[in-house]
């Protein structure tokens, strides 16, 4: 290969840096305001770093606000959703990957359909259905709804991981004396652990971010998830920027952790579920 | 050990038949090789015996017991896969003992069975390794070990050597043969490689297009191929064929389409002037023989293989090959006298069957 | 017996997922369609009667709906176009190996992991002159006449959610396009170089044709998805000021959530669904036509 002109290389690196700056700047600002003490917030509004930083907002948010409750609620909802979806999607993804059956076409079509229509259409009917069952304003109700929303995508994702495991393995296990289900549990599932981790991560992040349905279904502070809590906080006390951003930084942590976890599987996930964002 | 009876087996996917009416009796301790080109149905037949494919019609019996409806785990057979299908998350020892653990065999018994199988296959130093850390030949051995710890009624092999390089394949072929001699287990072996079939089999089942073409001992298939397919499939380089007409009379002979006349033995099944195909193996073509009935052939190409020489010859427009160990022909060119000995000729009628 | 069990296995594996999807998504969908023809007000216990096409008649005279429709076009078009252009450039930049590529890739893809409500809030704060730097910078650059919040300026408000959406959505395009780029066989480029093609020719004759299917499908799906994506708007402007940022999806949500008029909300949703179906059909037909022309 010929050596590339130096200025092209420099332009390339600068462009990458510009993208990184654009991607990180809002998050940086979030952190910056969160550590700026209130007395400096207005006087040093657009300084890139406050003349002295403090964790007072984090302290307040963690000790004197309802955010720990929101945080806990969100953890419960996202965690349960992720676990249940992953279990259901392993089963259905396995069915799609390993069996040829008559209903397969319809199952796939149904799952694709659920990815195509606007979920906002379901806000009103789901409220009407859940309300007489006592599942509005309840974390269980949210888990049920989120599980259903995420199962189709997770199924395609798990299917793509199962497809990557040779069919020979479970045939060998079946000849060794296993039933198909035992082969699935003892041979195939352990090999799909990375896929299971990725699915957990994707679903957790999706449930953690969901806004519309939790706004609609949850009314009280006790059951509020993080998005709902933060939004109601914003509309009620819209001057406590430091505290809000401190809460925002906290909300970012689990999502970023999962992002780092699933980073390697992003491409596979996106190609499997190219139908969803 | 057990016999396997296959009666009128058919298989179709939807409306596409892939196996037609296969009948086969495999005796106790016999080594049977299913051979044929890819897509001939040999693997499907093997997988039906294993229980990995359902049977469309007909019956499979293992040790006299109908197994059509039995799950693979209840058939008491072992199988070696082309991909080896070793469980990547288990050590070699765990791979070999998986079937025993599923059957809740006592721990001490498992340990002794695994170590004796490992000793037989030379796997002792590798027992704690994961399959990822093994070479192709070692993986192959583990796959065999997994099969033999079971002491099953029968062994099934699905192209077990095709992922190995040529040298290793030769070595493993011999080991499989030795193992079969030791264990005397009923074995069904699928391959597309006719050399493997010839060297390993007690009996070969040649298949093509979902039909069994011929069943017989390796030498049967070599000496008396039942039809054009078997004649062309067994042997390397493959048999030469000439299309033409059989002429009876005082001196029975065969006239190729190019007008070459080849003396033949009388064939009562062929009438005078019948369309037929004449076949002769390259190693049976005699070259350089100055005999009165010799024919003139043009030399097109000389391929030395080290062991011998493959000569590409032709009568006019119809090409054929001859194989010889005589190094005098390394520099052959122009034309050569060629003799096709009458006792080495194979005749096939217009339908392609041996006469 | 075994045949029946064999045939049932895939259904057993997929039954839990299927049951959940049908009860929580399909049934509400059908119910939602029926609401469009009924008077369903959450706070009115006497509602529930069939009203035929009344909602649709009201909708045809609803100026707010038409404005939302126009806003949806503007919101979707600008977001998709900008996400695609910047996503493609990013994918091309990341396609070449360089020192630290793994880290750079993780950092530029990070916005995708930020929960959408937080992305919305974050950008709303950045646009807020009290705590955010953007108004001051824009003022300093002479683009704005004073450091004010563009989210409260009816002329500019839509740019707020669009910028947030572009920031949030670039990684999706970049990841998908990068995967497609890396699937192009490298020897094609070598062959083209040997044949004498320059970088621009290589891009036009190899890269683009190979990317075209991915680009087409991604843009189609993203268009549908973004036109339904109301989170950022609800968080940042709630449709305001003066409905200038109200898109159809957020309008549906407002009708259901704020006014609790489920019947009318469902009627709008049905119209939106019809429009999206029409759009998808159009794309499919266009594709067929383009293919048949070749």
What is the name of the CATH architecture of the largest domain in chain B?
Answer: 3-Layer(aba) Sandwich
Let me know the CATH homologous superfamily of the largest domain in chain B. P-loop containing nucleotide triphosphate hydrolases
Distance between the termini of chain B: 38 Å
CATH architecture identity of chain C: Orthogonal Bundle
For this structure, the CATH topology of the largest domain in chain B is: Rossmann fold
What structural category arises from helix and sheet content of chain C?
mainly alpha
Describe this structure in words.
The complex is a heterotrimer of chains A (277), B (355) and C (294). Chain A is mainly alpha-helical and 277 residues long. Chain A is 74% helix and 0% strand. In chain A, helix 1 (6-35) packs across helix 13 (241-262), helix 3 crosses helix 13 and helix 4 (67-98) packs across helix 10. Chain A starts with 5 loop residues before the first helix and ends in a 5-residue tail after the last helix. Chain B has 2 domains: 4-233, Rossmann fold (3-Layer(aba) Sandwich); 240-349, Nucleic acid-binding proteins (OB fold (Dihydrolipoamide Acetyltransferase, E2P), Beta Barrel), CATH 2.40.50.140. Chain B has a 6-stranded mixed sheet with strand order 6-7-8-3-9-10, sandwiched between helices. Chain B has a 5-stranded antiparallel sheet with strand order 13-12-11-14-20. A 5-stranded antiparallel sheet of chain B has the order 15-19-16-17-18, with no helix packed on it. In chain B, a hairpin with a 5-residue loop joins strand 11 (240-247) and strand 12. Chain C is mainly alpha-helical and 294 residues long. Chain C has a single domain (54-293), classed as MetI-like (MetI-like fold, Orthogonal Bundle). Chain C has 12 helices and no strands. In chain C, helix 1 crosses helix 12 and helix 11 (248-257) runs antiparallel to helix 12. The longest helix of chain C is centred in the first third of the chain and has 34 residues, at 2-35. The model of chain C has no long low-confidence stretch (mean pLDDT 86). Classes of the chains: A mainly alpha (277), B alpha+beta (355), C mainly alpha (294). Chains in contact: A-B, A-C, B-C.
Which key features would you list for this structure?
heterotrimer; A: 277 residues; mainly alpha; MetI-like fold; 2 domains; disordered C terminus; B: 355 residues; Rossmann fold; OB fold (Dihydrolipoamide Acetyltransferase, E2P); six-stranded mixed sheet; five-stranded antiparallel sheet
């Amino acid at each position: 290969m010929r050596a590339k002109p130096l200025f092209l290389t420099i332009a390339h690196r600068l462009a990458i840096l510009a993208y990184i700056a654009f991607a990180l700047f809002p998050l940086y600002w979030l952190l910056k305001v969160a550590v700026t003490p209130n007395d400096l917030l207005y006087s040093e509004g657009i300084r890139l770093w406050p003349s002295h930083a403090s964790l007072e907002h984090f302290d307040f948010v963690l000790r004197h606000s309802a955010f720990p409750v929101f945080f806990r609620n969100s953890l419960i909802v996202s965690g349960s959703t992720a676990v249940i979806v992953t279990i259901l999607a392993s089963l259905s993804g396995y069915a799609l990957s390993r069996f040829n059956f008559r209903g397969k076409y319809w199952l796939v079509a149904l799952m694709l359909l659920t990815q195509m229509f606007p979920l906002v259409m379901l806000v009103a009917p789901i409220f009407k259905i859940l309300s007489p069952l006592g599942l509005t304003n309840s974390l269980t109700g949210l888990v049920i709804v989120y599980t259903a929303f995420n199962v189709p995508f997770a199924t395609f994702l798990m299917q793509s991981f199962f497809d990557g495991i040779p069919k020979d393995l479970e045939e060998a296990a079946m000849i060794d004396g296993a039933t198909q289900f035992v082969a699935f549990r003892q041979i195939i599932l352990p090999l799909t652990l990375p896929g299971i981790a990725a699915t957990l991560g994707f679903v957790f992040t999706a449930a953690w971010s969901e806004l519309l349905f939790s706004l609609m279904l949850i009314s009280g502070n006790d059951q509020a998830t993080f998005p709902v809590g933060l939004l109601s906080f914003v509309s009620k006390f819209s001057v406590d920027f430091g505290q809000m951003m401190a809460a925002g930084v906290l909300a970012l942590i689990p999502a970023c952790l999962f992002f780092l976890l699933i980073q390697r599987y992003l491409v596979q996930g996106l190609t499997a579920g190219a139908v969803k964002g | 050990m057990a016999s396997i009876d296959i009666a009128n087996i058919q298989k179709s996917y939807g409306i596409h038949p892939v196996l037609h009416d296969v009948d086969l009796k495999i005796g106790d301790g016999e080594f049977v090789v299913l051979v044929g080109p890819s897509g001939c149905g040999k693997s499907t037949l093997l997988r039906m015996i294993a229980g990995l494919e359902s049977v469309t019609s007909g019956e499979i019996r293992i040790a006299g017991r109908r197994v059509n409806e039995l799950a693979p785990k209840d058939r008491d057979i072992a199988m070696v896969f082309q991909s080896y299908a070793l469980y990547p998350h288990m050590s070699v020892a765990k791979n070999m003992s998986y079937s025993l653990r599923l059957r809740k065999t006592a721990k001490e018994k498992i340990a002794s069975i695994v170590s004796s199988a490992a000793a037989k296959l030379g796997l002792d130093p590798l027992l704690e390794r994961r399959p990822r850390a093994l070479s192709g030949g070692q993986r192959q051995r583990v796959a065999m070990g997994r099969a033999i710890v079971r002491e099953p009624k029968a062994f099934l092999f699905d192209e077990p050597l095709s992922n190995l390089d040529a040298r290793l394949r030769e070595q493993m072929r011999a080991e499989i043969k030795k193992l079969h001699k030791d264990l005397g287990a009923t074995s069904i072996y699928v391959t597309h490689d006719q050399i493997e079939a010839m060297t390993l089999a007690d009996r070969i089942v040649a298949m093509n297009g979902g039909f069994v073409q011929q069943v017989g001992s390796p030498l049967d298939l070599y000496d008396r191929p039942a039809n054009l397919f078997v004649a062309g499939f067994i042997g390397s380089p493959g048999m030469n064929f000439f299309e033409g007409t059989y002429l009876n009379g005082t001196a029975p002979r065969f006239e190729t389409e190019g007008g070459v006349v080849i003396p033949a033995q009388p064939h009562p099944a062929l009438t005078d002037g019948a369309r037929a195909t004449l076949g002769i193996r390259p190693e049976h073509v005699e070259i350089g023989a100055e005999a009165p009935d010799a024919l003139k052939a043009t030399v097109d190409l000389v391929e030395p293989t080290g062991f011998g020489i493959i000569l590409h010859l032709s009568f006019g427009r119809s090409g054929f090959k001859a194989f010889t160990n005589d190094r005098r022909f390394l520099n052959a060119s122009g034309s050569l006298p060629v003799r096709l000995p009458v006792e080495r000729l194979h005749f096939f009628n217009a339908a392609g069957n041996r006469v | 017996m075994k045949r029946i069990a064999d045939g049932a296995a895939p259904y057993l594996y997929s039954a839990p997922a299927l049951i959940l999807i049908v009860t929580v998504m399909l049934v509400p969908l059908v119910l939602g369609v029926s609401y469009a023809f009924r008077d369903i007000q959450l706070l009115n216990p006497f509602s529930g009667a069939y009203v035929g096409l009344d909602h649709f008649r009201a909708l045809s005279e609803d100026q707010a709906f038409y404005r939302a429709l126009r806003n949806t076009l503007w919101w979707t078009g600008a977001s998709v176009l900008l996400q695609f252009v910047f996503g493609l450039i990013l994918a091309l930049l990341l396609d070449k190996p360089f020192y630290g590529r793994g880290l750079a890739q993780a950092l530029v893809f990070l916005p995708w992991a930020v929960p959408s409500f937080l992305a919305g809030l974050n950008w709303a704060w950045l646009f807020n002159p009290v705590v955010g730097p953007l108004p001051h910078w824009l003022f300093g650059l002479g683009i704005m006449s004073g450091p004010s919040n563009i989210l409260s300026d009816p002329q500019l408000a839509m740019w707020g959610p669009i910028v947030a959406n572009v920031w949030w959505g670039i990684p999706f395009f970049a990841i998908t396009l990068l995967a497609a780029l890396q699937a192009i066989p490298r020897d094609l480029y070598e062959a083209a170089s040997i044949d004498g093609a320059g970088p621009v020719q290589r891009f036009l004759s190899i890269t683009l044709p190979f990317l075209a299917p991915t680009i087409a499908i991604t843009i189609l799906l993203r268009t549908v998805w973004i036109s339904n994506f109301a989170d950022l708007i609800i968080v940042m402007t709630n449709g305001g000021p003066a409905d200038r940022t109200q898109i159809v999806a957020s309008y549906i949500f407002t009708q259901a959530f704020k006014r609790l008029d489920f019947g009318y909300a469902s009627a709008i949703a049905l119209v939106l669904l019809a429009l999206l179906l029409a759009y998808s059909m159009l794309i499919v037909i266009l594709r067929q036509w383009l293919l048949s022309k070749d």
